[in-house]
Amino acid sequence: xxxxIRDFKPCNVTVNQDQANDxxxxxxxxxxxxxxxxxxxxxxxxxxxxxxxxxxxxxxKDHVACDAGSKEQQLTGPAEFAxxxxxxxxxxxxxxxxxxNYPIPLTETPPGSGVFQFNPPSxxxxxxxxxxxxxxWGNQPIYSDNSKPHNxxxxxxxxxxxxxxxxxxxxxxxxxxxxxxxxxHLALDIGGVHPKVQKTLRLSVFAAEHPETGLTxxxxxxxxxxxxxxxxxxxxxxxxxxxxxxKSIPPIH
Length: 253
Known about the structure:
The protein is mainly β. It contains two helices and 14 strands; from the N terminus they run ββαβββββββββαβββ. The protein is globular.
């Protein structure tokens, strides 16, 4: 699969990697308020609307607190979220830089199993040295020991067509946000800033629950996947699927 990655500046430029950040320390003059800001100990559902917009982009639904009664919201607002999967050129705190056609190879594991996997030990695709100079904002944030080991603030977008065979599954294991849409309808919701989480989408269950999508065996349909890495200190992105026929679609920028 071909991914579009957009790099963002964090609003907390310096962090203590051994302690939780104080959300009140977000510096809007430094970076985007959704990156290196909010935290939660688990996934937060209900951040996005159930249907993509006319440009096949997710839509803000609610800030949603990490837990009932908590002030720790997971998104800033609709204007800020709209920047996640659209190109925002310039040098402002909310600007992003776009990296096109980053390869997400799915390898049949083990051979002959019909299970295709992308399973790197960690997912830092745009660290310094991995892309052309100037293509990103560079490794951020700065740790308390003055090191900058990784680039932690980016979103991932993948758009593709697939052939529906009825029994397929799609399993994601990682952090942070991940949303999967089929025919513009929300199929997998693992939103928010959180530790590694695993969830499985069973396409036959989705088809039964969403007859409006018209999924029929042998037909070709659209799937859109949106991810985000927006907080230290880990980044994980593992995909396991039995979907065999996938063809990438260029995204709208």
